[in-house]
Specification:
12 helices, three-stranded antiparallel β-sheet, single chain, globular, Aspartate Aminotransferase, domain 1
């Protein structure tokens, strides 16, 4: 299998797996228990918390969650006042915001330019005193565009609002501005295990709890898994230690992929973009047929979270693509463990399959 779907998930780093195994096999104690075994498990959780925090702004705390979806829901539902967000946000934000609107909360969804970047004039008009929360994604999960989070945070603070950054795709890859107030991250997008994420909260920012129970994470209830925490911590450390190496590898794979896909159109900005994400289209391509013809390759037509909806990508529609253009687009994601020969061979076969469709038509 040639795996080119790194925005959906990433392979578990071997080092992260090794860190998890002792806690799955022997260190099964509840980290919230007061006995020695519990304290030992708690120590592992705190080591992991420190590692995750080292890639986040200073002056805050990391609260572990079941994933970024929970972290985003906690941040949004636990805040007050009208919300301003972007049309290109993940469903975890847009669906949560829609639920808040249904309960009477004010919501403004900002439009995008053709490049996928937020319309800053619309942002300045919308982010005014009275707004409670501004929510924006650092690196878009479908088109890889990097939003001007620092500028949005400045607008939010000038209006007296809190700034929430969905950094799931950018964590450890793109610098997170230190002026944000809340940051959601996920382990399985950085070669960690599935089932764990975190919400970083600036000191003094305390959204109301989403879950009630033991309050183990000071605002978040639920027993933590030392194994998942340990895996996340090691994955975060590797993202930090390998940052330059990984970035150089992404740049090389991007160049190879763009070369292989000459004649395809890149969706979204090219410059303000994370290089591990390449979203392209070729008019007339039947993407479903393409996936059927290339079953030993993993790539996507958009967010994995919306793959069963039957809808075309809301992100591609938000940047002005027609329904036909959105449905002839594919997302290719590569990362640390992607080999250059896999990109060359895989995309060569993909282009040949697309060419065959045109001949058959």
């Amino acid at each position: 299998m040639i795996f080119l779907d790194y925005q959906a998930t990433t392979p578990l780093a071997p080092e992260a797996l090794d860190a998890m195994l002792p806690w799955l096999r022997d260190g099964f104690a509840n980290p919230h228990s007061a006995h020695r075994a519990g304290r030992t498990a708690k120590a592992a959780v705190e080591v992991a918390r420190d590692e995750v925090a080292r890639l986040l702004p200073v002056g805050g705390r990391v609260a572990f969650t079941s994933g970024a979806t929970e972290a985003l829901n906690w941040a949004i539902k636990g805040s007050k006042g009208p919300i301003v967000t972007l049309a290109s946000e993940h469903a975890a934000v847009l669906d949560c915001v829609a639920a808040e609107r249904a309960h009477g909360r004010g919501v403004m969804v900002l439009p995008l330019g053709r490049d996928g970047l937020v319309d800053m004039a619309a942002a300045r008009a919308a982010i005014r005193p009275g707004v409670g929360l501004v929510a924006a994604m650092l690196v878009n999960n479908e088109i890889g565009v990097v939003q001007p989070i620092a500028e949005l945070a400045a607008m939010a603070h000038a209006a007296g609002a809190v700034m929430l950054c969905d950094a799931v795709q950018g964590y450890g890859r793109v610098a997170i501005p230190d002026t944000v107030d809340l940051v959601a991250v996920s382990a399985h997008k950085v070669h960690g295990p599935k089932g764990i994420g975190a919400l970083w909260l600036r000191d003094g920012v305390a959204p109301a709890p989403l879950l009630h129970g033991g309050n183990q994470e000071d605002g978040r209830s639920g027993t933590l898994s030392p194994a998942l925490c340990a895996g996340f911590g090691v994955a975060a450390r590797l993202m930090r230690d390998r940052a330059e190496e990984d970035a150089a590898h992404m740049a090389r794979l991007w160049s190879v992929a763009v070369e292989q896909l000459a004649g395809w159109t890149i969706n979204g900005a090219v410059d303000s973009r994370y290089r591990g994400n390449l979203n392209v289209r070729r008019d007339g391509v039947d993407v479903n047929r393409l996936m059927s013809d290339l079953r030993d390759m993993a790539f996507s037509a958009g967010s994995a979270c919306a793959s069963g909806s039957g809808r075309s990508s809301h992100v591609l529609r938000a940047i002005g693509l027609s329904e036909a253009q959105a449905r002839s687009s594919i997302r290719l994601g590569f990362g640390r463990y992607t080999r250059e020969d896999e990109v060359r061979d895989g995309l060569g076969r993909l282009v040949a399959a697309a060419d065959a469709q045109r001949v058959a038509a």
